[in-house]
Amino acid sequence: MVRFSQSFWDKDPNGTTGYEALTKRLKDGRKLCDTISEFLKQRSKAEDDYGKTLIRIAQQASGFEEMGSLGEAWNSLRRETESMGTSHCEVGRKLDELDRKVKGFRDDQRNETAKLDNKMKKLQKDKKIAYDNVIKAKRQYELRCKELDSAVESLEAIATFTPKEEEKLKAKKSQGKNRAGKCRSAIPVVCKDLGTDP
Fold first, then answer.
1. Using H for helix, E for strand and C for coil, what is the string for 134-157?
2. How far is CA 132 from CA 61, 135, 188, in A?
3. Which of its termini does the chain have fewer beta carbons within 10 Å around, N or C?
4. Helix, strand, coil percentages in the chain from 3-state DSSP, rounded to 5
5. What is the Cα–Cα distance from 6 to 27, expressed in whole angstroms?
């Protein structure tokens, strides 16, 4: 069984293994609640049927009268049997009540899980969008840095050039610095949306 503690740090930045481990545990819990509910229902029915049978047997045996100690023992046996039947019927009612509580808990859990699941799906989607934006900004930044390096190398490689070529290369260098600066300033904003440091 996958545990949340073993899945919290997912290798995939957009992975949801830890969350999936938690939701699977909740689903397993609901299945267990269903199993317990079915058990309680069957046990309650068995207790109720057994109790009613004992009461019926005790009442059917009441037509015979005996005197002396045998009569007292006979009446005591009938009363005890009826009392046991009543106790089993009471246990059946308590099990029914417990079954209702288990079902209520299961339904509350299902409703709360559904609410949280919708929120988590939205947050996971936002996280993926923010992550994709960071990767895109990183690629643009690296591309602009390469353009800047290329412009600087071109400028340094040319020993003699006309004033027009010099202006053109300086403009390209300046443009590269501006683009790299814009990309660099976009990364903290995107990281802030992700809740991480650049």
1. HHHHHHHHHHHHHHHHHHHHHHHH
2. 82, 5, 14
3. N
4. 85, 0, 15
5. 19
Question: Within 13 Å, how many C-alpha atoms sit on residue 16's CB side?
Answer: 14
- Phi, psi (rounded to 5 degrees) for 191: -65, -35
The span from the CA of 99 to the CA of 95, in Å, is 6
Q: Which residue has the tokens 């020993």?
A: 159
- How many angstroms from the chain centroid is the CA of residue 73? 62
State the Cα–Cα distance between residues 7 and 2, nearest whole angstrom. Answer: 7
Domain ranges of the chain: 4-194
CB 151 within 8 A of CB 172: yes
> In this structure, what are the phi and psi dihedrals at residue 153, rounded to the nearest 5 degrees?
-60, -40
Nearest-angstrom CA–CA distance, 22 and 2? 9
Instruction: Determine contact, residues 43/95, Cβ cutoff 8 Å.
Output: yes
Name the residue among 32, 35, 39, 194 with its Cα closest to residue 129. 194
Helix and strand counts by DSSP (H, E) for the chain: 4, 0
Q: Write out pLDDT tens, residues 133-167.
A: 999 999 999 988 888 888 777 767 765 667 777 78
Superfamily of domain 4-194: Arfaptin homology (AH) domain/BAR domain (1.20.1270.60)
| Both structure tokens of 170 | 């300086």
pLDDT tens digits, residue range 119-129? 988 998 998 99
